[in-house]
Amino acid sequence: MPRKIPLYKPQTIVGKEVLKSIQEVLESGWLTMGPKTAEFERIFADYVGCRFGIANHSCTSSLFLALDALGLGKGDQVIVPVMTFVATANVVRWAGAEPVFCDVAEDAELDPEKLEELLETNPQIKCVIPVHLYGYPCNMDSICKMVSKYKIKNVEDCAQSHGATVGTKKTGSIGDAGCFSFYATKNMTTGEGGMLVTDSKEIKDRALLMRSHGQTKTPEQKIADYWYDVVSLGFNFRMSEIEATIGIKQMEKIDEMTRARLETAKRYKEELDKIPGITMLHKPDKRSARRGVYHLLVVKIENNYPLSRDQLYKRLQEKGVIAGVHYPPLHYFSYYQRTTKYKKGDFPTAEKLFSQILSLPMYPRMKEQEFQSVIHALKQNSKP
Ligand SMILES: Cc1ncc(COP(=O)(O)O)c(C=O)c1O
Asked: What's the 186 CA to ligand 1 centre distance in angstroms?
């Protein structure tokens, strides 16, 4: 069996300076939600271009905090693209609202036309969650026009889009709130972790309360005076200082890591353009106002490729190349089939896309030899 080429590798989070900063945190005796968390929040919010950052457990908890802070709940409906990781829809249910699935366009982004059809016919829709899937920004110009026209809220799911831009704006700074993931495979990681960013003081204040059981004081503030109030039900969504210090160190490398992904994407384009039947879903394009960050490198397996997507997936695996499929449309999952009105056939573009897409290995510092093995395996199969 040849050595395996993984789909992703966790970003470089080990290095003398990272280990030193973790040791400093451990020796400081302050292990959670302290100065490192505050520093990480400042640095990350600045990077995105927002006033506030609220570090927490995950993108899932960030999305929940955003929906809660916007007052969404029972009786409200929230638009979610039908092709996304399931967290985007699950949080809507946990917030007490109902997810409304929306079909995607040919390149897997939320389809603005379908979005408008839903908004025109359904006054209970109070919010949309555009997902910058694979690290490629949605058509935010069209989405924002509809957000203003129909007076709904806009929570960006940026789990995969650290540093992606629309014109001069980074994803996460366009909607009412942006929610990022620092899960192990993401473009930057703290192991697990997430950040809510926003310009709104109201959202920030509410999210801070909800992050730590509705308490009016942080542990640090309680040192000076023990009394505090609990003004709301809340959760423990706190981030540890160890995660925060890793996050700070990751921020020093984020631009370099993104550049390395873009270089790999360019190399993929050069080689994939030569293979009939395999098309990159998003090709690097300097002229476009939307710049992706290639969290995933997704290709479409067209009819003129001699193998089906599933056949190719298995063939690559036999050759030690681990590919993936992101994502099954939400209405394919038994939970959502049981609990919504949706059925197969309702979202034709997402369904067709799902039968064709394949995610190829993509990570910064992908070795030339690893890259060539992937291309070689794809080319070998392209000969009938
Ligand atoms: C599009 C999308 N949204 C939300 C999430 C949830 O992120 P987390 O694992 O940090 O909760 C993910 C994670 O894979 C994701 O890809």
From this structure: 9
- Closest listed residue to residue 110, CA positions, set 72, 145, 82: 82
For residue 327, say if its preceding peptide bond is cis, omega within 30 degrees of 0: yes
Q: Which regions of the chain carry the CATH code 3.90.1150.10?
A: 254-382
Atom of ligand 1 nearest to the CA of 60: 11
Using a 6 Å cutoff on CB, does residue 243 contact ligand 1? no
Mutate to test the pocket of ligand 1, among 7, 57, 60, 90 (most ligand atoms within 8 A of CB): 60
Phi, psi (rounded to 5 degrees) for 297: -105, 100
CA angle 194/199/201 to nearest 5° reads 95
| pLDDT digits 0-9 by tens, 254-291 | 999 999 999 999 999 999 999 999 999 999 998 999 99
pLDDT digits (tens, 9 = 90+) for 151-208: 999 999 999 999 999 999 999 999 999 999 999 999 999 999 999 999 999 999 999 9
Q: What is the pLDDT of residues 208-252, one digit of tens each?
A: 999 999 999 998 899 999 999 999 999 999 999 999 999 999 999
Fold of domain 16-251: Aspartate Aminotransferase; domain 2 (3.40.640)
pTM over 0.85: yes
For the chain, the distance separating the N- and C-terminal CA atoms, rounded to the nearest angstrom, is 24
Architecture of domain 254-382: Alpha-Beta Complex (3.90)
Look at the alpha carbons of 316, 282, 364, 80 in this order and tell me if their dihedral is positive or negative: negative
Token duo for residue 268 = 């993929």
